[in-house]
Every structure is written in C-alpha cells, then in structure tokens.
Amino acid sequence: MIVTLTANPSHDRTVTLSEPLRHGAVQRASSVLSQAGGKGVNISRASVAAGVPTLAVLPAPGDDDPFVLELLAAGIDCRPVDHPGDLRVNITISDPDGTTTKLNSPGPVMTDATRAALTDALQRRTREGDWVVLAGSLPPGAPAEWYAELVDALVGTGARVAVDASDEPLRALVDGLGGAAPHLMKPNGHELASLTGHHGDDLEKEPAAAARAALELVGRGVESVLVTLGGNGAVLVSSLARGRAWHAVPPPTTVVSTVGAGDSSLFGYLLASLEDRPPADRLALAVAYGSAAAGLPGTTIPHPQQVDPGQIRVIDLDLTQGD
C-alpha cells in the first residue's frame, strides 16, 4: 500500500503552445488540459495505473467537491479532510521544445484543526510496511516543520516514509535529522544544493558530485536519497548497500512536458521497493518512469507498459574522489 499526503492539492491546467511563449504577446493555445493534481495525487494515479493499492489523504472543501469526485472516478481511494476555501489552480505553459513555465497559486490557509485532522488520518490509515509519501508544497498557515513532525509521528507506526519537498519545509526536515529520519528523500539537484552548499547547476551536470552531496544526508540518518537530475537522469545513494551510489542514464527522449516527471520517478522507486528489488534496480525503474513521463503531455502519468527499465544504463559511482 502507498499512502499519499497532498497537503496543498491543485487543479492543474496545462496550456500547450504551438510556438514559444512570447512575453506580452497574444498567443493561441493548441490544447488545454485540466486535471486534479498535486505531487501525492500524481503518485496515487501512478499506483492505480500499476495496480498497486493506494490511499490519497488530502484537504478538500467536502466529499462532493469536484476535485474529490474526479479522483474517485479515476479509481483513487480518497480520504478528504474537510477544509474550507477553494482549492488552488496551478497553470503550466508548455512550449513546443518541452520548456515549461509554471504559475502556482498559494492555496487556501490551512487551519490548525485541518492540520491535526490530516495528521490523525495518516496515523490511523498507515500500517507497518506501508509507504507513506509526504509530497509537495505546504499551504499558507502550515508550519514549515510539519513534514518533520509527521516523519516523527509516522516512523513510530512501522511505515516507511518518503518525502519530496522543497524550500523551507525541506530545510526544516533536514534540520531535524538528529531525531527521526525519513527512509527516502527525493530532492532534485538544485534542492540538494540548497541543503549542502553546492551550486545547483554543478550537481545537475556532475552525478558524482550530486551523489557525494546526497551521502551527507545518508550520513545523518536518511536511509536512501534519490536525486533527480533532469536530462542527466538520477543518482541514488543508499545505506541499504553500505553507502554505495549509482547513476542512471536515461535513453534519448523527445521531451513533451517535464511536469510530473519527478513524481513518476519517485513512484518508480517505490514500486521497485515494494517488489523488493535491489537499490540499483530501484534507480533504473525510477529513471524509466521519469523518462516516460517527460515524453507525455501535461501531467500525464505513464502506465507500466510505457515504461522500459531495460533502456536505462546504471553506472556504479566512485565516491572516494573529491569534487
């Protein structure tokens, strides 16, 4: 079972252009896609497509809200927690070359009561051995330390916890690693750089440097760190293999949209983990899922038949050499 928390869900709208975006101009869209979204929701969508049991926990105005009804119609078991206020709308503008421009709104203010109800919902519905995914931005009103607090609360249930966060929530999580630590963290190169003092572009271009930076988090108690590097694939450092590291190289891909590719990569890792595959194979499936997602429009999540880990080249990294 994969239980997901989407603390700040959104109506995701993707506007696809037939020519590059021109600032200040009037342009016609070739298509507009709309979908109930958010990082946790995307992972639950991937779970349904792969036949993996999933449960999506999220705040919503009510059980009959169109967002919730859309998820239920897609086969996603959904546990909404009552939260007043309209859900946010995120807009992605996609250029023909795959470049994306995102306009994300903040979302409604989360009350203490809603946050407590979401925490309770996760604890009651999580069992030993489940993966719990805490993913995406936090809404206004939620403290930056909330993910760190949830890791503390959930590790006691025996569940495995994965976190995909950025900015202050990510920093607060890392600052609290002296206590409970998540089993998996999935930063991208720039997010990892913000934690370790490196330059984001350097980590995106140098997989070994990214792996050495990730090793710092493993040394502080995180079981595995999966770092996505855009077109350069991803690296994995894991204490499950005594701190070994790997770099997975994706096949040539015609990029249609990078939105949701990181979520798909995280799901690929979780799926391989549930199948008890070794760490290097988890990395290969993660990159295969992310690569497949990048070749699809909008936030489309790939089905397993669209994913081919056999095309992924996995390389052992030597972390004994300095930067």
Characterization of the model:
There is one protein chain. With 323 residues, this protein is α/β, with parallel strands linked by helices. It has 2 domains: 1-21 and 29-182, Ribokinase (UDP-N-acetylmuramoyl-L-alanine:D-glutamate ligase, 3-Layer(aba) Sandwich), CATH 3.40.1190; 186-323, 3-Layer(aba) Sandwich (UDP-N-acetylmuramoyl-L-alanine:D-glutamate ligase). Helices cover 34% and strands 24% of the residues. The chain has 10 helices and 14 strands. The chain has helices spanning 39-50, 66-73, 112-125, 146-155, 167-175, 189-196, 200-205, 207-218, 261-274, 279-294, and strands spanning 2-6, 10-17, 29-37, 54-60, 78-82, 88-94, 100-104, 131-135, 160-164, 184-185, 224-228, 234-238, 244-249, 313-317. A hairpin with a 5-residue loop joins strand 11 (224-228) and strand 12. Helix 4 (146-155) crosses helix 5 (167-175), helix 6 (189-196) crosses helix 8 and helix 9 packs antiparallel against helix 10. The model has no long low-confidence stretch (mean pLDDT 91).
